[in-house]
Design brief:
Length: 149
Amino acid sequence: MVIVAVMLVAAVHAIGGSAAVRSRVTRRAVAPYLADGLMAEILAQSYQDPVSPVFGPETAGGESAISRATWDDVDDYNGWVESPPRDKDGTTIAGMSGWERSVAVVWVNPADLTQVSATESGAKRITVTVRYNGVTVATRVAVRTNVSP
């Protein structure tokens, strides 16, 4: 009976360890999907608002600070935090409880993309961070310039 009890405890411990590893692997697969999806959405926007050069959502132009459905330029996303993650139209992505996405957009020196600029520089660095239960799991960084292709 002692042998069976020891083997049962070892089996339960192994199953628990396997579940924890599977959970970490799943998080590492989901996080890039969430980061890349939001980054692609941001990069599809204009460098600057076609009507107003204001940095951030132009509330006078009908852009909401709480919904990104009407955002039309890269810097509208600055300071955006959402938990759980949602599509651009506001629909919550199913099964994403515990996940959070945040965005930071800053002007940078085009000659040194690590150097933040206090004024318009012709280049914006976008950082998307994905967290699960407060722990950063993925980060994506991209630069958008004011140069036409």
